[in-house]
Specification:
The complex is a heterodimer.
Chain A lengths: L1 H23 L10 H7 L3 H33 L5 H23 L1 H6 L4 H4 L3 H9 L7 H28 L12 H16 L8
Chain B lengths: L3 H32 L4 E6 L4 E6 L4 H7 L18 E6 L14 H5 L2 E3 L9 E4 L8 E12 L4 E10 L10 E5 L10 E5 L9 E7 L5 H9 L5 E8 L11 E5 L4 H13 L6 E7 L8 H10 L3 E7 L11 E2 L2 H8 L7 E6 L1 H13 L7 E5 L2
Parallel strand pairs in B: 1-5, 12-13, 12-16, 13-14, 14-15, 16-17
Antiparallel strand pairs in B: 1-2, 3-4, 3-5, 6-7, 6-11, 7-10, 8-9, 8-11
Helix pairs in contact in B: 7-8
Classes of the chains: A mainly alpha, B alpha/beta.
Chain lengths: 203, 372
């Protein structure tokens, strides 16, 4: 019985970590990371979803990968301070590899997801998630949930931004506000809304 | 004295970074070889007119280029210029999001693709305009560069490798500039003014474009005796096979293809009636006037009409004055039986087409080469 309760606790904590990473700690709207690709690609919902899905996949898998490298190589060797540079290299190599595999395996998937992968090699949201997860004493699955949740939050934010931008495309704006300027204002207003979530979940 | 423990951790850090870098780099190289290796693929061009066997994995544009088939391309394969369109009837795969904005509904129906975005992954069938198959890359030596006016030069290039070119009067080549002052190499199109029978030389007329990358290179950096590279011949601008009377209209360096065509007609003994309207601003923009007047005396079928639009009223100019479109309308009020050959800026060509249509000429009788 104790064992079962323990398991329940772990599952609950994973769900909580996922939700808090996606909403209360939204990486795009509360930490303003991953801005450049967000501004560049959020012109349409379709491409926003494509890029967002690619980000979810990459954040979740690199969070897990970087967690293992950190816990089982960097810490035992006593070189935890190299985590930043190590994570950058691992993320870049991983993204390249995934791009190659996707290109080979499925053309459909490649055009839906693959062409966005080079864009996120240097997406700071992904590096941010890998670094932030080390601030808490997470287990492997919790780290994975944090990565997936962070990616999902980014996906959610860029999809909404894409939807709003598509809606206001025909509207007339003062010239100085067109494009990235109005997008930043939209993101700011959305960030205010997301601040409302903060403090709802404590982890 | 540095304590040993610090040396030790520096060693571990450096070793770890080196090892990670090497392992990942090796992994990626192996992966690229293994995963992206598509083996040998066959490219069938124009239903068996040419068959290529190529290593797969590259883009169609670069693979064809490696096999000496040069599809025109200005952006270098980034999918932004949309010059490199070809028809891919089999094995082209899906249309990528990069291509989508460049393809209209009609083109999509005809399976037109951007060859820089199509990857050669399997056997593939394509259709390209026949003349592209004879396009080659040439190396030549600049024999002379002589000013025709204050802003137009004539280049005469001797072909080195390959040493002869087959083309039709009116076609153009793409001249490649060299790097200078931080400008990259660029390819720019120039019509040939030389005779098709002179297979070992190419002549061009180049007008200086203010801050143009290639023309500035030609005017300020290119020296006689220097080696140049270009590809060609390209283009469908040439004399038709009918015997209708011809109206040529061109000003400035637009004379290049027409100078080639006129001399080609003379050489081949073709006696079609022809009138050349040469539009210029003032007398100092005129060139080859004596040569053209001489041609008019030598053959019965040719008439040369230079016209100036900005010549000062009291000058010694005895020829026509006014906009070239007005002069054409005055000489050819009814041009429904003639064919027209136009060469020059898009604005000038559009204005001429308007005048010719007013005179009763149908669009299928108007041929032009826009210098855009």
């Amino acid at each position: 019985m104790d064992h079962l309760q323990n398991n329940m606790g772990i599952v609950m904590s994973i769900i909580l970590i996922f939700t808090s990473a996606a909403f209360t700690d939204n990486i795009l709207l509360t930490r303003f990371l991953g801005m450049c690709s967000c501004l560049g690609v959020s012109r349409k919902v379709g491409t926003s979803i494509g890029l967002g899905l690619a980000v979810i996949f990459v954040t979740a898998s690199t969070a897990a990968l970087n967690f293992l490298v950190y816990q089982y190589i960097l810490i035992p060797l006593g070189i935890g301070y190299l985590r930043l540079i190590t994570f950058i290299v691992i993320i870049a190599a991983f993204v390249q590899l995934v791009e190659m595999i996707v290109e080979r395996v499925s053309e459909k998937l490649y055009y839906a997801l693959g062409i966005f992968l080079p864009l996120i090699t240097v997406n700071c949201a992904i590096l941010g998630i890998s670094l932030f997860m080390l601030n808490k004493p997470y287990s492997f699955w919790q780290a994975f949930a944090f990565g997936a949740g962070g990616g999902f939050g980014w996906f959610l934010a860029i999809t909404i931004i894409g939807g709003i931008r598509e809606k206001i495309k025909e509207n007339e704006l003062p010239r100085g506000l067109e494009g990235p300027a109005i997008t930043l204002i939209i993101i700011g207003i959305m960030a205010l809304a997301f601040v409302g979530f903060s403090g709802m979940i404590k982890i | 004295m540095i304590p040993g423990s610090i040396l030790f951790s520096i060693g571990i850090s450096v070793g770890f970074l080196l090892a990670t870098g090497l392992i990942l780099a090796a992994l990626l190289i192996v992966a690229e070889k293994k995963i992206l290796n598509y083996g040998a693929c066959r490219i069938d061009i124009n239903e068996g007119e040419r068959r290529l066997e190529v290593p797969g994995g590259g883009t169609l544009l670069s693979t064809l280029g490696e096999n000496n088939i040069f599809i025109p391309s200005a952006c270098g394969g980034r999918g932004s210029c949309a010059y490199c369109k070809v028809q891919v009837t089999e094995g082209g795969g899906m249309v990528s999001p990069v291509e989508e904005p460049h393809l209209g509904a009609e083109e999509r129906k005809n399976q037109i693709r951007l060859s820089c975005q199509v990857k050669v992954r399997k056997d593939i069938k394509i259709h390209v305009p026949k003349e592209l198959l004879s396009v080659r890359k040439y190396r030549g030596k600049l024999l002379h560069k002589r000013p025709l006016t204050y802003d137009i030069v004539e280049l005469r290039i001797e072909l080195l490798e390959p040493n002869n070119i087959d083309f039709v009067a009116g076609q153009y080549i793409q001249l490649e500039s060299e790097e200078y002052n931080g400008h990259d190499r660029v390819m720019r199109a120039y019509s040939m003014s030389s005779l098709p029978s002179d297979k070992s030389h190419v002549e061009l007329m180049i007008r200086k474009v203010p801050s143009g990358i290639c023309t500035t290179w030609v005017f300020e950096h290119l020296r006689e005796g220097q080696e140049v590279t270009f590809s060609g011949p390209y283009g469908k601008f040439h004399i038709s096979g009918t015997d209708a009377e011809m109206i040529f209209i061109a000003g400035g360096s637009g004379m290049a293809p027409i100078w080639g065509m006129l001399r080609d007609l003379k050489e081949r003994g073709i006696m079609r009636k022809a009138t050349y309207f040469f539009g210029a601003l003032t007398q100092k923009d005129l060139f080859f006037v004596d040569e053209l007047a001489k041609l008019q005396q030598e053959v019965s079928w040719f008439r040369f009409i230079p016209a100036l639009s900005n010549e000062p009223a009291g000058s010694d100019w005895k020829g026509e004055r006014g906009l070239i479109t007005d002069v054409v309308a005055r000489y050819m009020p009814d041009c429904s039986k003639q064919e027209a050959y136009l060469c020059g800026s898009p604005g000038m060509i559009d204005a001429c087409i308007k005048v010719l249509k007013k005179g009763g000429m149908t669009e299928d009788r108007i041929f032009y080469d826009k210098f855009a």
